Amino acid sequence: MKPLKERDQAVVGVVTIVLLVCATAAAFFAKDLPVLGGRTYQAYFTESAGLSAGDDVRIAGIRSGEVTDVALEGDRVLVSFRVDDADVGDRSRAGIEIKTLLGEKFLALHPDGEQELSEPIPVERTTTPFDIPDALTELTRTTDQIDTQQLGQSFAVLADTLRGAPAHFGEAVDGLAALSQTIASRDQQLAELLRSTSGVTEIAADRDQQVQRLVSDGNALLTELQQRREAISSLLRGTQRLSDELRGLVADNQAQLQPTLDQLNQLTEMLQRNQDDVGRTIAAMAPYVRGFNNTVGNGRWFEGYICGLLPPVVNAGPLQTNPTSCELPVPSRPVGGD
């Protein structure tokens, strides 16, 4: 075996560079490798509930992976996630849960089953932290079962019992009593409001596709505006440059333009002073213009005869002209008659 220094140094350099690139790529993408990066699974949810790519995947409260993608698929949300060092069975369950009070979420996974999970976890085995339509429906159903009369009486008894408390506490109790009376008197209105809320929720659920389309169209509009922003900025910059050039042109030619503008102002003032005279002149010229047009006008043209402008040549003599060129031409032979 040849020593390293006796081998082709170019080949050795290329092999070294390739090995370094492979090692760097393996270090950066180790999580995506099938051996070191765990396995990827999927689950269907009714809504994303604020879950996003990069959030934790936890099993029994311990971080075991991360969410890799959250995508809309029809009327469901498909969540893809990676799990490290854990077996996920075919009866596993998943749920989106709240991680912090600031609204961060994580995917809670509950492995179950003897066979390896090969299909996405169905909606029947997934849960979300809240479902607005179901919550409002349950609120309406629960509120309808409240006996408002009995609730009002309970508040009244509580107010009477605590009426001997200190003054500030008594004011609070009086307010509580007034609240109970208001609730009792507005029983029908509250029930109608809750029923209307339930109806609005059902309508919103029925119009889910239209809402999704509206959001998609809004995103397309914002994307187009973003693309046009550079063109609009370029147009505004060009307009600013044109304004600067015109301002400089006027400043450079102020001395030449000022006399012309002064004379134009004088002419305008003179016409303004003689406006009545100009109007009378135009009115007086109207009959003359009509008569002139009727006399010499022919369609869009004027006809006229200038005597002696170009005298005609009678014969071949270079200096001989028609001595009677300014007289009207007379035919050489009579026209008609004897």
UniProtKB/TrEMBL annotation:
Q: Name one GO cellular component term.
A: extracellular region
Q: Which residues form the Mammalian cell entry C-terminal domain?
A: 120-299
InterPro entries in UniProt = Mce, Mce/MlaD, Mce_C, MlaD_Phospholipid_Transporter
The record's Pfam families line, in alphabetical order, gives:
Mce4_CUP1, MlaD
Report the residue ranges that make up the Mce/MlaD domain in this protein: 38-111
What NCBIfam families does the annotation carry?
A: Mtu_fam_mce
PANTHER family (alphabetical): INTERMEMBRANE PHOSPHOLIPID TRANSPORT SYSTEM BINDING PROTEIN MLAD-RELATED, MCE-FAMILY PROTEIN MCE3C
**Mind telling me what this protein is named?**
Phospholipid/cholesterol/gamma-HCH transport system substrate-binding protein
Annotated source species: Saccharopolyspora hordei
